[in-house]
C-alpha cells in the first residue's frame, strides 16, 4: 500500500500559553493542552487529528503526576542513575522541526520513520517529535554532558492493548572530553567507574550474555578508528555504557525476578545484548532481559555518533560518550502487570490508588536496590506494586468488510487506525467515560484477498469495542460503528461489502 494519506484532518487553532511545570499542577490530574498549533501553516503533509490535541502539553504530564505508575518508574530510574552525576532535564515543546527530529540525527531521506503514515506532521517542515533523540543535539549544545530526559512522543500506529499514539520515552547520555582533562586516561574517571560497576555486578545475581561482535553492532565510527585517543575513549565509553545499563536492568527487574523465581534468589536475572542499527549511535545495541519465560527488549543504546556532538558546537567539541533510550509504558506494563496501555490515562480511582505510596521511600516501593550505576547494589527489599484489575467489562465485536477502490490502495493502514480513533474519541462519543476517550480496544485484519478477475482487494477488519470503566450496550456500539463505517466510505473511498 502507498504511504500517502487522504484523510481530511483539521487542526483547530489554539492559543499559546506558558504554564507551570507539570509536577506543580497537582490540582488537576491531567491539565488541558496549552500548545499552540496556530502559527504552523498547513500543507499536504498536515495530518494531526483533533483528537490528539488534548494530549499535547508544553511539558510531559503523566511521568510527573504524583503516584502515577510512570512517575514511579521515572523516579526510580533517575534515582538509580543520579550517583553517576546524570542530571534530569525537562524537554521543550513536543512540536519540533523535521531537521531536529530526522536530519540532525542522520535519518536518510527514505527512512520509513519519515513517512506520513508513521509521523504526525503539522506541515512538511514541522512535526510532533517521534523520539526523545530529537533533543540530543540541543541538550548537548546547552552544555549538559550527563543528562536524562523524559518526554512524551507521538507516532501513528495500530490499535491494540500495547500501542497508543502518545507514549513516553526516557533518554540518557554521558559524554566526556577527549582532549581536555584525564577522564579517559588510564586510571581516570571513566575507567574507575567501569571497574566499580563491574565489581558490583560480579557480586550480584545477574547473568550477562554479551557475544555481539563489533562488526555486528555497526563497528567503530571512522573518526574514532583513525585516532588512538578517540578509539580508547570509544572503547571505555562502551564499557561504561554496558556497566551502567546492566546495573539498571538489575535494578528494574532483579527484585521482581527473585520474587517470582521458582528457585528463589539463587536464580540470576538473565540479561542479553544483541546487535542493533540506529542512525544516531555506532556501535549500537538492544538490551533484553529474560522475564516471565520470554526475552523482553527494554532499551536501545550505543556510542553517540560524532556528528551529533559536532552539531552541538563548542559544547560538544572534542567529546565522546554513550546514549540510551527506553519506553516507559513498555516497561511499566510488564513491571506492574498493567494489561492495557489506555489505563495510563485513566482517572479511575480504582486504578490510581493502587500506585499511591508514601512520599518517603516511594522509590524503594518499586525497586530492590537503592544505589546508582557507579555505586554498590543494596540488598534492601520492599513491597513490590502489582496492578490488580478492578473489572473486566465484556467486549463487543463488530466487523467491517469492504472492497478497496483499486488493486493498489492510496491509503495506509495507519490512516484507518487514525480514523477509528478519531470517531471514537470524546468529541465524537460524548457519552463515553473510557480511560483514554476511545471505546476501541483493538483493531485487527482478519481476512483479505484479491479478486482474480478484477484485481480489486477485499479486506475485513474486526473492531473490539470495550470500555475500561463501564459496560457498553450493543445499541451504543452500533451507533458508533455506523459512524466509523460512514467515515471510512467518505474518507478512504471504500465500498462496503
UniProtKB/TrEMBL annotation:
It is found in: Mitochondrion matrix. It comes from the Eukaryota. GO terms for biological process: phenylalanyl-tRNA aminoacylation. InterPro entries: aa-tRNA-synth_II, aa-tRNA-synth_II/BPL/LPL, Fdx_antiC-bd, Fdx_antiC-bd_sf, Phe-tRNA-synth_IIc_mito, Phenylalanyl-tRNA_Synthase. It holds the Pfam family FDX-ACB. Keywords: Aminoacyl-tRNA synthetase, ATP-binding, Ligase, Mitochondrion, Nucleotide-binding, Protein biosynthesis, Transit peptide. The keyword Aminoacyl-tRNA synthetase applies. Residues 93-354 form the Aminoacyl-transfer RNA synthetases class-II family profile domain. It catalyses: tRNA(Phe) + L-phenylalanine + ATP = L-phenylalanyl-tRNA(Phe) + AMP + diphosphate + H(+). SMART domains: FDX-ACB. Its EC number is 6.1.1.20. Residues 391-497 form the FDX-ACB domain. One of its GO terms (molecular function) is phenylalanine-tRNA ligase activity. CDD domains: PheRS_alpha_core (cd00496). GO terms for cellular component: mitochondrial matrix. The keyword Nucleotide-binding applies. Belongs to the class-II aminoacyl-tRNA synthetase family. This is phenylalanine--tRNA ligase. It comes from Jaminaea rosea. The lineage of its organism: Eukaryota, Fungi, Dikarya, Basidiomycota, Ustilaginomycotina.
